[in-house]
Amino acid sequence: MGSATFRPCWWTCCSWRSCKASNVSTAFRCYLQCKKKLLGKQFDDYDIQTMRKRVHFSIIEGPKGEPWVEIQGMKFSPVDITNVIFAKLKDIVLMNQFHHKLEVVISVPVFFTEQQKEDIRSAGKRAGLNVLELIDETRAAALSSTTIKEGFVVVFGMGAGSYSVAILRVFGTKFEIKTQLGDTSVGGDQFDDILVDYFVTQINKLHSVDIREDKHAMVILSEAVEQAKVKLSSQPEVAVSIPYFTSSAQGPVHLDITVSRPQFEQLVSNLIEQIQDKCHIILKEARITGNDIGKIVFAGGMTRVPKIRETIYQVFGKHQTATVDPEEAVVIGSAIQAALVVEERREMSKDMIPLSIGIECAQGIFTRVIPRHTTLPTKRMVKIPSWCDQGECLRIRIFVGDHVLAEHNTHLGEVELISNRNCQGCVDFELTFEVDKDLVVKVSAKNADDQLEAADDVMEALKPFPVYEMVIDEKLVSKHSVNNAVRKALLDWPIYTAEINANLRNLARFTINTLSDVLSVRKDELPKDLCEDALTAVADLQMALFGDVTLLKDKVFCAKSIESTLLEWRPPSESREGDLLA
């Protein structure tokens, strides 16, 4: 496979008039990078609004609230752009093939939502491709290194828009993902943005001109900076020279700035530290050391950056590196997967949930029901004690993600549990989550003491769905808030005896993280005694985490009480204002 096999994922839209008016090489051209982040998103999403401030083309709101791009009076949806790329690739293949039926395997980022995957399938179908399967880039990169036979392998992938790091265990012809992390907001584009900001600042200092409003100059600068970044991977310094780059009050401005590799590494040090922290976390989650790693596989052009490789080696050790070209690793792995799908030669690795699925609890805290990295298909149950009058409902909001606050995760939908039978006291509801290999979530509910099961509904993961009602044949009389009901559910988390230890310890870790996060943000304003109680609770949980289960349950009970007080505490001034308003 030569370099000619691979094509860049961007699309050039060039006006015919501008081409006629001047040389094509100097015509104003708008390069639309195929921003994967636009797929499956809404225009109002925070990351889309952030992207609008950085890119040099217009992002507008589409007819259904999705982000579209507008350039030279033409409007395109993300699926349209992806369709153009797929169609072009199809034409290239057909030039060397004698049949017109193309079956493909497409690689996608590991944290792609189901809606984003559906957009990819839709674009492929419109381009006339039969999409056999979507494979995440981590698995594809691992497949590309066929020399790995047994042991632990680190796969680090970084492209233009995101990065991911995973630890896989290889045994024979199979492999499983032990753990994986990543960030969809950090990639090569962010490194480019930092370098562009540096050049803009230097131009302002040298020539007293701000070029941020000059889109033509910014496009040219972005291209030059990206090329300089690539060259810095093999050269100690790079000079960026562009004659007649822009103009100022004093006349034409000629760009001539030199940047060195140490300067570049210093500029992006914060991003490098973020990557390093993620690598330390994933190594700890896998419960192995760097000595257990047998090989490191790099995927994506950004992994050529020396500082990134140095960071990976510092965390995992300088082990044997796979010989596959980083820019070809995912493509080769996808091709191997296609052969395996068609020929069915051997069993592939098991699919896993990349993000946790859970419910919103008191104060908007997100509680995991199915943790990330759970092998699919899977089935989990959570027991929820509740008090409410006849006709009242217990509304459960379901999310996917790993942020401590539910609102920062992706909302799957809501389930309402409605009682219609007389009963006194607290009644336990059992909410069952089933997830199949297509990431379709099936939710059912019943009373823990009754065999009558509520109607169940199917929710497509990562897609909005209407509110469904689940009617429970019960009557509850004691009146308490739903928040208290769900909070008490956390103290009765274990469902099956076989899972009690793991679930309880997961709850303990979750509580430790919550208390630590609150203390780090509000330590200066919280009362000293409350901070001390929280610190003591964290220390007690850490000491009891792998000890006696009964002791751990007591510590969790105490910690949850402190957590509730901590989250509800307000300064006296705010409390008085609230009382006056009430």
From TrEMBL:
Q: Write out the transmembrane intervals.
A: none
Keyword Nucleotide-binding annotated: yes
Q: Name one Pfam family in it.
A: HSP70
Keywords for the protein's UniProt record, in alphabetical order: ATP-binding, Nucleotide-binding, Stress response
Q: Which Gene3D superfamilies match?
A: 3.30.420.40, Actin, Chain A, domain 4, Substrate Binding Domain Of DNAk, Chain A, domain 1
Looking at the record's lineage, which domain of life comes first? Eukaryota
Q: Which GO terms describe its molecular function?
A: ATP binding; ATP-dependent protein folding chaperone
Q: Which family does it belong to?
A: Belongs to the heat shock protein 70 family.
Q: What is this protein called?
A: Similar to Heat shock 70 kDa protein, mitochondrial
